[in-house]
Records
---
Amino acid sequence: MIRFVARAVTDVRAIWHDMPNTDEPRVYFANHASHGDIVLIWATLPKRVREAARPVAGSDYWSLSPLRRFLGQHVFDVLSIDRAAAWIATGPLKLMAEALDRGESLVLFPEGTRNTGEAALLPFKCGLFYLAQSRPHIQLVPVWIDNAGRAMPKGRWFPVPILCTVSYGEALRVEVGEDKNAFMHRASAAVQALRPRHRAAP
Amino acid sequence: MNDADLLQTKQLLLAGTLTVLIVASLAGALLKLRFARGRTHTVIDNLNSRIKAWWVMVLLLSVALLSGPAITVVLFAFVSFVALREYTTLCATRPGDHAVLAAMFYGVLPIQYGLVWGGWNGLFMVFIPVGAFLLLPILACASADRTRFLERIATAQWGLMVCVFCVSHLPALLTLDIAGFEGRNVLLIAWLVMVVQGSDVLQYIWGKLLGRHKVAPELSPSKTLEGLLGGVASATLLGAALYWITPFTPGQSALMALVVCTLGYCGGLVMSAIKRDRGVKDWGSVIEGHGGMLDRLDSMIFAGPIFFYLVRHWWAS
């Protein structure tokens, strides 16, 4: 139902640079500008892949009110993590790694929050790196979601009609011996590279 | 003229259009086989995509032609929605525009078509130019975002004028009372669409066959003088030849066709200038790979309202 509305309003289209042809769990990491982001990802992923894909989100936000708890648990099925916890610690990293081991895919927004500024992308948090390091076989798919923040900006609860696209790039992995900064830089560049060239200035 | 005659006229029009389309599709397929089998060929592939887009357009218009006014109005409301969405996507909106955009899509657009459907002619002509014109900036103040305020509000108003107000003049033709032409108003829409779209097609063909001199290389590199003259002249003849479905005499019909084709041509030029400024070639991709709704609609947008007011002034009572 939500996907249907998203399609009708944004006419979302997927651009695949690398078709998902396996049932292996994957980590999709995307830019984040709107609550609509995850809906657009679901609307563009093939059914089989979609059903196994869960968004990772901050528990501080999604447990704030009963409505958010309900949406988070039953509608978006978020894997909620404590954004304040230390990454190396057992908490968030362990939860995500366990989900991958169970065969679930994860949707990560490494910017850590919705981007409302002028910059295309906020600096990535390093959870992605530690997750990739702890499960080196997992494919990390960069994703650029275009225009979701314009269709449904932060603080609004319904979308306006603006055409959106979701671009899926070629999967990355952590190279042997690659250090954190180099990997984070590469991951961030992979997402930015998917951004369409012709865009209206904000 | 009675209902049976009307139905016969519609069937004749559809049969004629379908014949042209089938011939065009066959020609396109033959060209592809003969010159570019299994390869990409910019001109031939572009021609074939255009033919596909015309199929979709003709099918939609046949629905309008054969069904009642309600379906026609809903169809054009949908066209407006898609066009306005393409327009908005290319504009530089800010988060503070959310309320204005919501009002445009979910308020102004349905109300405008509601007025058309209800036949409130006086209201439908002032609702957007006066009502929305004053309401939107007031609403925009609520967001307290003053960055580029005038530019944003002007852009929003222009989008409503072009994508909703102008387009709604086509179904509004149904509401005119023309003596001796009762119940046949939908044929005016058919005539206008056939002549203006025919002019686009004929300009394209003349331009591809004889085009040498570019008219406006900075705005629309594909428009040539030969295409313009040949296209408008042959579409004027087409308009005259179709006089029997309108309340016009052959001479009036030719003159009308000349006016709407010239306007349609200018419309294409204006919309193209906006696209180039935004750095894109097409408005969208509604029909997979064949450009957006606005790419096919640009000429109708400029021809529609003027045609409506000319008919209203001289023929309607």
---
Amino acid sequence: MSSRAHAGIVASPGPLHRLGGRCKLLGTLAFVAVVVTTPPRQWWAFAFEAAVVVAVAVYARLPLRDVARRLTIELPFVAFALAMPFVGRAPTIAVAGLHLSEPGLWAAWGIIAKGTLGVAATIVLASTTSVPDLLAAFERLRAPRTLTMIASFMIRYADIVTDEMRRMNIARVSRGDNPRWLWQARAVGSSAGALFVRSYERGERVYLAMASRGFDGTLPVQEADERQEAWVPCLCPALIAAAVSLSAWILA
Amino acid sequence: MSGDGSIKLSAVTFRYPDGHLALDAVDLTIGHGERVAVLGPNGAGKTTLALHLNGIHAPASGSVAIGGVTVDRRRHTLAEVRRKVGIVFQDPDDQLFMPTVRGDVAFGPANFGVTGADLSTRVETALTRVGMSAHAHRPPHHLSYGERRRVAVATVLATEPDVLVLDEPTANLDPSARRELATILDSLDLTIVLVTHDLPYALQLCERSVLLNAGRIVADGDTAAILSDERLLAANRLELPFGFSGFGPGRTGNNPAHGHLLGAHTHRPRSGSSS
């Protein structure tokens, strides 16, 4: 079975793996916030901030190639940014025979640079923190329990539902179905319907099992994460980025 | 676990919203510390019966009492009954939903107000009893099916119930996991209700069996006596696995091996049982 509960985490533990989730989560959030407020036209500031992310990834002993591969998750958003130079307002500049909007180009650059840095920072967080630790961190930061519980259920059952879907697909294909053809979409559709009903029924069974152990709508508070919270190292990247961003604003 | 683990069902009738009559005037008395197998074919009403024992289902007519407490819809009665009766469901994936084994085992007692060091002790004790304490920090779905079943038992033991109800506990278990679970169950000093159609398992663990079909109790008595009544089993869509048939009082003469199979199981005299 694949393991979505550890989907992000890199198996070989580095120094960041050992730290509590809360300081890593807050450090990442602070870093992303600083990156977002950096002025886009000071492109060198983003180079410094990128260097900070790379340095943290190296310190955490993450394989940089894996981090780069995981960055591809932002490609759909990048595609959206690429349209901006074509639809932006004047003044325009001519690049290879195309008239591109200058503010549109800067906006696209800003989205791509900030998006990439933000995604890279969260990849470093996800690669060094297990899902239970992340959920516990959100709870300790007083995120609404209903939301963390929904996230936890989603992660817990994603594997089981995916597995069920795979088994249904295998059973369908074993009976001669070939879903590459459009006219067989009906079978795929009814499988999806069956999967929905099964998941819904499982939801009911899970609720019964919870009610049997005294669940009455309020969730008990879980035990605290006893590992050390290293605030200084975890907030360092955000502080360095803040200094860079501030310099960029002063020079702008 | 010093509470009263007796069960009394009086004329319990239950109908599902689609009109299907799942339980039809069921009378059943189980004494404290007794182990009873509830046998029956698919759709006999076994799971429905189990869900009446902790107030998940409320009978349309009749009553259910656990340890002398009549189950009703009041909030505090339900909480008390769910503390007294622990149900281990058929699919451990339905029962284990927290990110870690420890979180799952702590869920029940935390709901019943146990906190701090007491909670940690409960979790540790329950996991030790099922031999899973080394896996406390693992996500449940990284465990094997047999390990998940044992953790599911621990999630219920952690609430320190007086009655343990197991719904098809041997489903999907390999032979070793099946035997390990039997050893764990055998070590527990509680009232046990074993809902199953795994007849050898019932014989191994329970001195008494109740045979349910179409929502009615059709037999109630000594497990070996019920399992040796081939006509009764056949009439209720139950069969012993290949190699087990024909044993029992008066039927062992044909094949010494069958007598040996029966002889291998021992009924332990149990204290406090009153049936």
---
Amino acid sequence: MKKSLIFVSLTLFLLQFQTLAQEAFQPMKDTAAFRREVAMQAKVTQSIESDFVQEKNMSVLSEKIITKGHFYFKKENMLRWEYLDPFNYVIILNKDKVTIKDDNKVSRYDMNANKMFRSINDMMINSVQGNVLDSKDYTIKLMENQHYFLVEMTPVVKETKAFLKTINLYFSRTSYTVSRVKMTEVSGDYTSIEFVNQKKNESIPDSKFTVH
Amino acid sequence: MKAFLIQSSLFINLVVLAGGCAIRNYGLSDFKNTQGVNPGSLNPVLPDTFSTVLFKAGVDVYGRYFSGLLFIKAIDSTSSYRLIMTTETGLQLFDLELMPDRMIIHACMEKMNRKAVMKIIESDFRLLLEKYEAHKAQALLTDKARLHTVYRFRDGKKLTYFFIENKTGYLDRIERASPWYKKVTVLPEPDENAKPNTIRFMHHDARLEIKLKLLKIS
């Protein structure tokens, strides 16, 4: 009986170890093919719509802060990023205008007049679209495992480096779309955003990118 | 010389006006002395035993508005609190530790890390989190309509008033004042379960209002 228990425990441990080994990322073998495929997907993608689940992990807290929402992206440069649970909050990036609606409070900004908004805009749109491989603001490391292609981005710009250590983009191996984004801060705390129920190239009215 | 006289006269008028707003005309009158007041915390904005609380925070400052998530964690062993604010998208704005005698800045975005900003945050959250014992009040007052019992605490020139509604026994508001003028009002708006659904910090000496909306408490 005791031997059986040891055997079962050992098997479970080895299975777990094997799973972990499969999850581990290795340097990407065919980076040229990956770049080509991502560029092609970015080219043919006219719109993306998806739910998202955001998890904020802080070392000082034992629990994660989980928020949920929905986003719409439409070419060129139109993004609606909307939190629905546990609060209502909308960010709309439309060409060079930023609109933020917090409950009933609406704030409008000109992206060109605000370097920070420009940087956030680039980061959000490029992350959603996967159009980041040629960015001069980050050094790029390409990795893969059996589920994902991983683009690990390390900022080179001083202002971004001050608060952000890395941005990891996890691309689905089948659709070449971003399934998950992980932003790690200098402290090691991180925010992870998982995209679910993604829809590509469906019609999205322009009215989604305005606040009434 | 004439200009100097006008300036002096204006200054004297201002002093008289400020004097007119001093404590004695705060709209309160002596009620009874503090003898016989039962010991106990006067600060029921947040429950005495909370471990963590998550707020949606909105800040209106001189016509500009920004918002985020504010997480407060009680650290039992040291009577301290950890205050962490992030943007809605998860980016950390500050990580502070409020201790009984000082505040440690663990991390803070460069643009926010100004002495005046940190001082306001420290002062506002001490009002919200520190325990005020009823029997330690310096004076017990009432308003003209006798709707509230008002506990006044003095710490040097700093005065703190707790307005307790006579009818319900609930905290109506907290006010922080100098001897000359009102500085901040903290307005809790509890829900039907007495949870602090919304808390507003209204600053009277600056165009600043902080609004906290409760998302989660444990």
